[in-house]
Amino acid sequence: MEVATTNPNEETNVWGGGNQPLNASYGKLMMWFFIVSDALTFSGFLVAYGFSRFKNIDSWPIADEVFTHFPFLHGVDAPMYYVALMTFILIFSSVTMVLAVDAGHHMNKAKVTFYMLLTIIGGAVFVGSQAWEWKNFIKGEYGALETRGGQILQFVDADTGKRVALEAFAADIPSTRDTHQRSNGLWFVDESSLPNYTVEEIKAGFAANENLVIRGEKIDEKGHKIVLSREASLDKINDAVGVVEGANLVHNEYGNRLFADFFFFITGFHGFHVFSGVVINIIIFFNVIVGTYERRGHYEMVEKVGLYWHFVDLVWVFVFTFFYLV
Amino acid sequence: MAHADQKLAIFRGLLKFKSNVQKIWGVLIFLSIVTTVEVVLGIIKPESLMTMFFGMKLLNWIFIILTIVKAYYIAWDFMHIRDEKGSLKGSIVLPLIILIPYLAFILLVEADYIFEVMNAGFVSWNF
Fold first, then answer.
1. Which residue of B has its CA nearest to A97?
2. Domain span including residue A96
3. What's the structural domain count of chain A?
4. pLDDT by residue (tens digit) across A51-84?
5. Claim: this prediction has a pTM higher than 0.90
6. ipTM for the complex?
7. Is B44 domain-assigned?
8. Chain B residues 21-80 within an 8 A CB cutoff of chain A
9. How many Å apart are CA B25 and CA A101, to the nearest integer?
10. Nearest residue on chain A to B111, judged by CA atoms?
11. Does A1 reside within a domain?
12. For all residues of chain A together, what is the average pLDDT?
């Protein structure tokens, strides 16, 4: 009979303090709140990436052509294999983390220690892999020309359809242009190191090699970059004002500059999360070793860093999709 | 805190595990399969999936759906949302599934509009 009316006694129990209405401790709830807000931050970044991409939908760089490196395989075109490997590493370190949490529930100190160690190693390997990925991206592969409007002109062999690096055809024209340094000019003006070739050298080399054509940023309906004819290429190359090798926040040999900006920003922000996750995991790892949680009577702290660690993995799943797959 | 109330079944009870550790390995295998499917699709890019569907290539929709499936299992089984109370589940998941699609929707529609303006307008973006 008393089903509809609430029991006043129980009500004080739920809202009177001293218990956990959501059946989760204070610390765990705060970790969840942080994760929800951080998830919104990351979605903000990824949606901003989507915005720029939809805005330049007919000229966005093709990820398969940008990320083609694999360790120890030089010159082999291996799109995506490396990021796939990174994804597996991160998922696996997520698994060792859950196993650590599970061992914590059984108060098994040795197992928690072992699995935490594996998690830390997995995270460190992931950060290292990302550093390598950045190195390749920054260094660039083929080089390109940039027009005054910021468009990228890449070079393709007309017969094979393969990309051609600048060094393969650039003419050698002696020039006396030196990098400007503060010590021998205006002290407040600085410039980064000059590209290996001048625009004149590229133009002369291009004119001399009949089989070279230019590939612009535009994409056709099938999703391939449009390659110009030889005549159109000879005309187009006159627009070039600079040589770009590799990528940074201002120039990007792979295409639209925003692509490089978002790549550095989103994978960098994610990599920083992984890095801080590794640091926090190391702290917890040593706490496990010295027996802090054994004395406390529970391993909930491992569970809390575990939540953060899985979240980092979760974000990578989305970054992987939107940067490399889609 | 022995977590005796852990739910050990995934796929709506289709697959039941004997222990939590077994469930973790099971989920890992599932996630690996999904990732492998994604990578294989991304490398071969089947021509039949290149048709446009609701503003995007069909292949891209498949990638996004598979990603959400992966996200579900990471959150539900690795982050133990499956074992949490309904109220906690809701307060974590609902804000995200309401706000993120909303943000994506308005920004992508706006971006598409800007693309049209730049495409059809009298402004030169390559000078």
1. B78
2. 28-140+259-325
3. 2
4. 999 999 888 998 888 888 888 877 777 788 898 9
5. no
6. 0.89
7. yes
8. 21, 24-25, 27-28, 31-32, 35, 38-39, 42-43, 50, 57, 60, 63-64, 66-67, 70-71, 74-75, 77-80
9. 14
10. A55
11. no
12. 88
